[in-house]
Structure formats: structure tokens, C-alpha cells
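Q: Mind making up any chain with C-alpha cells?
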Amino acid sequence: MQRTGRTNQPTFRIVVLEHTASPKAGKFVDQVGTYNPKTKERTLDENKVKHWLSVGAKASPTVHNMLVSAGVVKGEKINVLPAYKAPEAPAKEEVSAEAPAADSAPAVEAPKAEAPAA
């Protein structure tokens, strides 16, 4: 899909291009349709789409889903949204019954013995 249109008024061309090229470059092999996301209007040339798919072109997941809902291609839709990762919960410190209460005086640590130098 190649974005066209002004700011906040997007329209897309559905184009065929080489896998090494970017749709932003504007160089495409063939235009097979258009899509307006504001009005949900789609125009597809089914004969061109079927031709390009028959010669080995692969549709992007979004275009594939569009072709499935339009009835051009049979199959299941592809999930294009990223998988949800739940945020990790911070590890809770467990308070043991043996720990001194906050009201009591803090314990004094014994000085550590120094290791002999080798």
C-alpha cells in the first residue's frame, strides 16, 4: 500500500512492486486498486490482482485481509496486530515472621573478619 493524500486525509494505492523497493519511493510495477480508510471505500481490479498472485507476487498481511474480505482470495485472515505481552509484575518482598518489628531497635551487625592476604 502506498500512502497518498494530504495530512490527516490519507488515501492509499494498492500497488505491485519489487520486494527490494519501498512504496514511498513511488516506483511501482502496477497499480491494482485504491483504498480510502475514512470512507472505507475500496476499488480493486480483480483480474490484475489474480494475475499478479498467479505469477508469484505475495500480498502484505493487510492487503491479504482486504482481498479476503472483498472475496478476491479465499482463505483466513492474518493477524496483523502485535502479540500482547503482559507487563511483568515486580517481585514482592515476603516478610518473614522472624524479621524484627519496625518499632524495635535495629540490630547491630558484627564486624566482619578480614581475609588474610595471600
